[in-house]
Design goal:
Strand content: 15-25%
CATH topology of the largest domain: Rossmann fold
Radius of gyration: 22 Å
CATH architecture of the largest domain: 3-Layer(aba) Sandwich
Structural class: alpha/beta
Largest sheet: 7 strands, parallel
Order of helices and strands: EHEHEEEHHEHEEHEHEHEEHE
Number of strands: 13
Helix content: 25-40%
CATH superfamily of the largest domain: NAD(P)-binding Rossmann-like Domain
Strand order of the largest sheet: 8-7-6-9-10-11-12
Shape: elongated
Number of helices: 9
Oligomer: single chain
């Protein structure tokens, strides 16, 4: 379904790394008025001065998620594009009169590469050997063959599908717990997400790829973790609050789980006092599982393609929702 053709208007780029693609943006859309906000503390002023109709919002460590929330109150806003998959920091967006799109899938393959790398590292005990290296004392360890192990991907969207594609190439049996009915590409078995409690204990490896919404917050709580196999691997590169970290710490304290990889946390950065820092079974990274070197340019290129679609009256890609009729 096509949409009304938008004339060139006013665009605000809210991104500390905007200079990486700003010239290309202005060259491609010379009739567009482009304002830029590179710092969180300047956002309110720039919004007031530029009165944007379109906003491209991209989260970085120095322009964090919650700092983007004032964008919701831009009075002329007609379209918000989020340069990433998650938009939970825009709480209340459902009540606003603008279209929303996101960058779901733009970096899916790169995040999947990291997930597979972490699974390999944990399964082959590389994280434990690195700890031995720090003590200059090696002790050989055996590992289970990866081929034939059962991988449960919880959330079979773009990233989950890329994980399954790579896992199959390594000989893993791929299972999905998904809101979408099967069959799905790259998955041997597809279960409804509602059946997660029944199937999570069948997996040797569990990898989380869900958005953070009310229904998924602490989905992996004490009870769900108790259903995992004692020797399971657990991976979370989705959102930290999907996993109850305190419950995970208690699970590990009881000697359960073979290994854990976390790229996301309930509080970011991970507090220095967290016991996860020092646990020998835990592999950590600072929310960068999909951070290929040119990720800002890739997200910006997707946005520019979508902007071209909007200006020519074609349907937007990755539409989270259209503005309610009459608003």
């Amino acid at each position: 379904m096509s949409q009304t053709v938008d004339p060139p208007g006013r665009l605000l780029v809210a991104h500390s790394g905007a200079d990486l693609y700003l010239e290309a943006l202005r060259r491609r859309f010379p009739a567009l008025e482009v304002a830029v906000c590179r710092r969180a503390e300047e956002l309110a002023r720039v919004l007031d001065e530029s009165e944007p109709e379109i906003v491209y919002s991209c989260v970085t460590a120095d322009f964090p998620r919650l700092a983007h929330r004032p964008i919701l109150d831009a009075p002329r806003l007609r379209w918000l594009h989020v340069g990433g998959s998650g938009y939970e920091h825009f709480a209340g967006w459902q009540d606003r009169a603008f279209d929303m799109t996101n960058g779901r899938g733009v970096l899916a393959g790169f995040q999947a590469d990291t997930v597979i790398g972490a699974i390999l590292a944990l399964n082959q005990n590389l994280h434990l050997f690195e700890q031995q290296r720090a003590r200059r004392l090696f002790a050989a360890r055996t590992f289970a063959p990866l081929a034939g192990q059962r991988l449960l991907v919880v959330g079979a969207g773009a990233i989950g599908g890329e994980v399954a594609k790579r896992a199959r190439a390594l000989g893993l049996v791929t299972m999905a717990a998904s809101r979408r009915a099967g069959p799905l590409p790259h998955f041997d078995v597809v279960h409804p997400l509602d059946d997660l409690e029944e199937v999570v204990g069948d997996a040797d490896i569990v990898s989380l790829h869900l958005p953070l919404v009310d229904e998924t917050r602490h989905l992996f709580d004490e009870a769900m973790l108790a259903r995992l196999r004692d020797d399971a691997l657990l991976v979370n590169t989705a959102r930290g609050a999907i996993l109850d970290e305190a419950a995970l710490v208690r699970t590990l304290a009881h000697g359960r789980l073979r290994g854990v990889y976390l790229d996301v946390f309930e509080e970011e950065p991970l507090p220095p006092q967290s016991p996860l820092w020092s646990h020998e079974k835990v592999l950590l990274s600072p929310h960068c599982a999909d951070q290929v070197a040119d990720w800002p340019q890739r997200h910006a290129a997707f946005f520019m393609d979508n902007l071209e679609r909007r200006l020519s009256g074609r349907p937007l890609r990755n539409l989270v929702r259209r503005a309610p009729p009459g608003r």
